Amino acid sequence: MKIPSDILPLLESAEAEEMFEFEGLVSGQDRVDLAMAAARLHGGVCLSVGDDPDSFWSRALGFGFGTPVTAGLVADVLDFYAAHRPGLAVLQFAPSVLPADWDRIAEKFALQGSAGVVKFAAPVEDVIAAGRSLRLGDGLSVEVVRPRHAAEWARTVATAMGIGGRCFPPAAVATTGHPSWRPFGVWDGEGNIVAGGNVRIHGRVASLFAGGTLPQARDLGAQGALIHARALAAREAGCEWLVVETGPSTPEDPNPSYRNMLRYGFGIAYRRPSWIWRPTGA
Question: Which of 89, 184, 189, 270 has the fewest CB atoms within 10 Å, counting from its CB?
Answer without folding.
Answer: 189
